[in-house]
Amino acid sequence: MAAWDSDRLRVLRLLLALCAVTAFFATATPARAAETTPVTQAAYLADRLRENPVHVTDQLPREISRSTAPDFARLAKKTGVPTYVLVLPSQSSTDGRQLLGAVHDRLGRDGLYVLVDDSAVAEATAYGVRVPAEAASTVAMYELPYDAGPLRSFERFVDVIAQGGEKATARAEAARETYRDDEPAEMYIGPSDRRNQSFVTGILLTGVPLLILLVAGYAGRRRRRSGAGRRFPRWVVPGAAVVTAAAIALTAPVVFDQTRSSAAEPPTPADLSARVDRVAAGLKKDPVYADPESPRVLDSRQLDRLHDRIRDFRRSDGGGPVYVSLVPQTPASESAGDSWLFAAAVHAESHQDGLYIVADPDDGTIDVYNYGLRIDSDRLSLDLPDAVTFGDSKADEADDHLLGERLDTLMTFLDKAPRTDRPGFESTPAAAPKADEEYALPPLFATDFWPGLFVGAFAALLLSGVMAGTTWIAGRLLRRRDPAPEPTHLLPFTAPTEPSASYLRRTAYTELTTLTGEFTDPDDRTRAWDHLDAAMLLIDGDPDRARAAGTDPATLVAVIVLARAGRAALAGDTDDLCCGINPLHGPAVTRHHVRVSAQGNSRRMLPVCEPCRDTAIAEPGGIPGRLLKLPDPSLGNSRVPYYDATDGPLTAVPHGIARLIDKVRETAGVH
After folding, report:
1. What pLDDT does 25 receive?
2. Residue 475 pLDDT grade (very low, low, confident, very high; cuts 50, 70, 90)
3. Strand 590-595 vs strand 288-290: parallel, antiparallel, or unpaired?
4. What would the pLDDT profile of 118-164 be if each residue is shown by its tens digit?
5. Using one digit for the tens of pLDDT, what is the confidence trace for 575-591?
6. Average pLDDT value for the chain
7. 402, 407, 408, 412 alpha-carbon torsion, rounded to 10°
8. What whole-number distance in Å separates Cα of residue 259 and Cα of residue 640?
9. CB of 553 within 8 A of CB of 499?
10. Bridge partners of 83?
11. What are the strands, taking DSSP E only, across 619-664?
């Protein structure tokens, strides 16, 4: 009996022990699970909206900082209904409508729920209120370019909500029809566009003023040649060029007034440090920090195993603390998407050495950085399998990127990693672009502005040359189509000293036919008739012979002189003298002793036109260069002064037109 009581006592004690163990695990395990299981994304966001109806993430400071929350709140009041706004990073694995529905269920409040990502209104759903949320989303999507920014997109969304159902629906249909094929023009320019603007500004700043100077100079020369003279004071053209340059320099910054390449406003230092502070504070409480704004990628079992592996590694020989950040790395974050820079910032803020693992729940990448453990850092960066760092095809297809399994594989890799004698530390990563300068455009008068100055000058020279050449060609074509004699006052400046045969034939024919056409009375036997009669004698009465090949150059010059003198006589000019330096210069104004040879001091008394007279007085040695020279067949077509190249009627020019007429008649045997 005593033995039986003893056995029963042992069994009773064993049962009591088992009950105690069961009770311990029954109470302890749920408590740990409650501590380690992360709050769901929807619950966390609902709590944020319970505190404030507008929640702006701290993960996008380079695109939209938390300091814009008051602006979203101000716009949200215009909807006329309770409005809850979530500004979050875009998440490829999360359905926006489902997220808003889950947040609404957690929050338990009716109203308009709007999800805004880093570029625009991503989703909007109304619960218990009647607002045209879908139409407003459509208008914001179609009417605005992609670079308008989230705040401007939300502003357009709110404006359409305020219009009411019918107007909002009509506007949505119009926007969809208008921008079905073509998107709205971009609102901002990039650095390459600014360089183009600078280049164009440089071209205009030198090209336009220089073109004004060149064209005005060319036009002035043509006016002087046409006898119009200078119409404006000398300072007008340079002044116009200077004023134009100043106007371009002052207007360009007004036309090209963009200063930033994005709608993003520069974040404050607090905006840039908010997420790092949050993650560092979280890692001090728990070595695994799962971003509460992102979808959950580790379930309770995976999270428990990761905690166990981290605890075991810390206790292992040569091991140490491991800190895992399950946080997305986006270009709009404080670290500009650089996980190394993010890990360095978190380490500096937490002041805790160890291995820092950055796992991105959005794209699934895993990076490891060593700060103070005796682990071969080169092995961590070079030998870590790609299947761990980037995942494989199965990881790409999974919503959670199989991060639980891959982190477990990483911990196994760390357990086997060789230990070193001294702690290793990562080098300092390159700094992220300065947030206040990242979207700032270069100054207009910089970069390609300087090459533009040289291109503008070259373009002005080229364009003015093309204009001058085009004008000259057009003039030549017009003269050939409808030939007209040169104005008399231009002849001293345009007449060649060594005319070609084609020039002489063309000019003789033009002058002769013009003189013939000016005779309105065939019976008019005035002094001009003598000039025409003498000219016709030289070409046997046939004007077409004036442009026939083989006609003697001296004869053609005489025809030109007589035809011009005849036209002058018809106009009432009784002057009988023609320039003896170059008969093609037209009428003479006086007689003057002139030097006619560059060698020696040979002089002749010759009638001279005004320019030749001025040359004879100011520069006597310049007269031989102005003499009309014609080919001399006896000298192998070398050119000599006209009065030495022939013994025909042209030699009488220095004695006057009347003597030339007589000489022509004597040669032709006409009395």
Report:
1. 39
2. low
3. unpaired
4. 999 999 999 999 999 999 999 999 999 999 999 999 999 999 999 99
5. 889 999 999 999 999 99
6. 88
7. 140
8. 71
9. yes
10. 112
11. 629-632, 638-641
Enter the tokens of residue 493: 């400046």
Q: Are 122 and 90 in contact (CB under 8 A)?
A: yes
Q: CA separation (Å) from 423 to 341, 371, 412, 416?
A: 20, 8, 20, 17
Provide the whole-model pTM: 0.66
* Closest to 289 (Cα-Cα) out of 342, 335, 363, 332: 342
SS (H, E, C) 552-593: CHHHHHHHHHHHHHHHHHHCCCCCCCECCCCHHHCECCEEEE
List of residues 6+ apart from 231 with CB closer than 8 A: 223
SS3 607: strand
What is the pLDDT, as a whole number, of residue 474? 72
For residue range 12-59, what is the model confidence (pLDDT) as tens digits? 454 444 444 444 433 333 333 333 334 589 999 999 999 999 999 999
Q: What is the DSSP string of 145-188?
A: -GGG-HHHHHHHHHHHHHH-HHHHHHHHHHHHHHTSSSPPPPSS
**pLDDT recorded at residue 32:** 34
Distance, in Å, from the CA atom of 423 to the CA atom of 318, rounded to the nearest integer, reads 9
Predicted pLDDT of residue 476: 66
Q: Which amino acid is at 372?
A: G
Q: Are 322 and 357 in contact (CB under 8 A)?
A: yes
Q: Which residue has the higher pLDDT, 94 or 392?
A: 392
Amino acid at 282: G
Q: How confident is the model at residue 71 (pLDDT cuts 50, 70, 90)?
A: very high
489: burial class by Cβ within 10 Å (0-12, 13-18, 19+)? middle
- CB count in 10 Å sphere of residue 14: 10
Question: What pLDDT is stored for residue 637 in this prediction?
Answer: 72
Diameter of the chain measured on Cα atoms: 186
State the amino acid at position 216 in one-letter form: A
User: How far apart (Å, rounded) are the C-alpha atoms in residues 520 and 570?
Assistant: 11
State pLDDT tens for residues 272-295.
999 999 999 999 999 999 999 998
* Dihedral of the alpha carbons of 327, 331, 333, 334, in degrees to the nearest 10: 120
Please name the residue that has the structure tokens 């929050």. 107
Q: Please tell me the distance from the alpha carbon of residue 558 to that of residue 653, in angstroms, as a whole number.
A: 8
541: which residues sit within 8 A by CB, 6+ positions away? none
Q: Provide the CA 431 distance to its chain's centre, in angstroms.
A: 28
Closest to 107 measured CA to CA, from 87, 124, 84, 75: 84
Residues 6+ apart with CB under 8 A from 623: 581, 594, 595, 596, 612, 615, 616
Strand segments (E) across 167-309: 288-290
Cα separations in angstroms, 665 against 416, 587, 589, 653 = 126, 22, 26, 14
Of all residues in the chain, the percent with pLDDT exceeding 90 is 68
Give the mean model confidence (pLDDT) for residues 69-89: 96
Element (H or E) spanning 421, and its range? strand 419-425
CB 365 within 8 A of CB 396: no
- Work out the average pLDDT over 318-327: 96
* Paired tokens of 317: 């020989």
**Please, are residues 59 and 278 in contact by the beta-carbon 8 Å criterion?**
no
Confidence of residue 405 (pLDDT cuts 50, 70, 90): very high
Q: Answer whether 125's CB lies under 8 Å from 100's CB.
A: yes
